[in-house]
């Protein structure tokens, strides 16, 4: 029982209008990698945002009074705060140099997931518009090319409540259900499993992050091979939504 | 750039007094696996607790008034609630059928991490007494046997705020610093990295969980090979503490 992770090494710097699916196809050719059934490709969200041209010029941002007020509280640049507010449904918590929001997509994370890294100065990349849709388009293109059943997961690096440090986290997916519901499965003693819901897509994202973070030049795409549960979780309709806890069920959002 | 995960296949059911380090040594021999420098062994916490005989008999639990009161709120068995309280420093939140506490170790998690699974009926396993110490003892034994530098991480499966589903999480470690502080590292454009603190031990635990969860009989120990950052993070003194956010710095614990 083994699992293999490969970092794709030939991914060029991405610019607006680039076709990520094609870029992956070219990389796989160049590295002589054949996709297999059950392969899972994990893609750093910043790659998708850049291909979408989903980039905010800080100079163009008009700062609202609310942004100025919150910028005071958290000691962030008012323009950054304004972009964070524009990308959010609501503010969950404000802390020193961060604002935890619920993003337009429904993710609860710091600074609406806006990434000031890996873009030229004066620019910031928000999360992709629709990570599930991007994942689906890339999956369908590669499945058609290779005639294999695969999954695509779009990943971000996010902090957590209660624990220090960020980890790779799934923000979009296609081809696999992100949540493994194991109700009915039993343990060594035939008892119902303690853990009946596993956020498999988040575990895959965290695993991929181990490679993405390492190389100096960064590894934006990781291939995971040998995840047998792919067959159980295969699902071409469901996106990331099963991993998002509705506000009314979250004891930390009262 | 690749990462390999192996599930150790010959781990027997563990009972009180068993020597986990010796059990791992025997498994590696049987599977003909030679440990290499930089290998990381991830061990499910329930294995450590069982070897410690750290098991609570529900019949022996004397229920306090506070436990009865909280059991009312969360609709859990008062005896389970009592054990949860006894394993905790404080209650963080109470929800339907769960109590989020800070455990004696300082972890914020559901039900003080008490595991009702994989033990015979009427018994429950709390977290290991001192996961860092257990990890250190196992590491030192195996490093001495194999004359290699390795890391041991004790893992649990824990839920999260804001997201559905549990993921593999590190609760003890030895041989590696669990937190990768990257302040000073730069991105593709020479800018300071957005993410300066990565909870590497949690990412390793989540990756291992992908294998631990799969087999029907369960894979309690996973070997991760090829994690180059091991050399950067090598540390024989630090335990899991760098991943625990002090209460006063957590906006979700006001």
From TrEMBL, chains A, B:
Known InterPro entries for this protein? F420-0_g-glutamyl_ligase, F420-0_gamma-glut_ligase-dom, F420_ligase_CofE_arc
Q: Where is the Coenzyme F420:L-glutamate ligase-like domain?
A: 10-226
Q: Which GO terms describe its molecular function?
A: coenzyme F420-0:L-glutamate ligase activity; coenzyme F420-1:gamma-L-glutamate ligase activity; GTP binding; metal ion binding
Q: Give the cofactor note.
A: Binds 2 divalent metal cations per subunit. The ions could be magnesium and/or manganese.
Pfam families given for it? F420_ligase
Residues that coordinate or bind a divalent metal cation 2? 157, 214
Q: Does the keyword Ligase apply?
A: yes
Matching entries from Gene3D superfamilies are given as: CofE-like, CofE-like domain
Cofactor(s) essential for the protein:
Mg(2+); Mn(2+); K(+)
Record: residues binding a divalent metal cation 1: 115, 156
Q: What is its EC number?
A: 6.3.2.31, 6.3.2.34
* Binding positions (GTP): 11-14, 45-46, 50, 118, 212-219
Which BP terms from GO are recorded? F420-0 metabolic process
Catalytic reaction equation(s): oxidized coenzyme F420-0 + GTP + L-glutamate = oxidized coenzyme F420-1 + GDP + phosphate + H(+); oxidized coenzyme F420-1 + GTP + L-glutamate = oxidized coenzyme F420-2 + GDP + phosphate + H(+)
Q: Which UniProt keywords apply?
A: GTP-binding, Ligase, Magnesium, Manganese, Metal-binding, Nucleotide-binding, Potassium
**NCBIfam families in UniProt:** F420_cofE, PRK13293.1
Q: What does this protein do?
A: Catalyzes the GTP-dependent successive addition of two or more gamma-linked L-glutamates to the L-lactyl phosphodiester of 7,8-didemethyl-8-hydroxy-5-deazariboflavin (F420-0) to form coenzyme F420-0-glutamyl-glutamate (F420-2) or polyglutamated F420 derivatives.
Q: How does it assemble?
A: Homodimer.
**Family affiliation:** Belongs to the CofE family.
- Name of the protein: Coenzyme F420:L-glutamate ligase
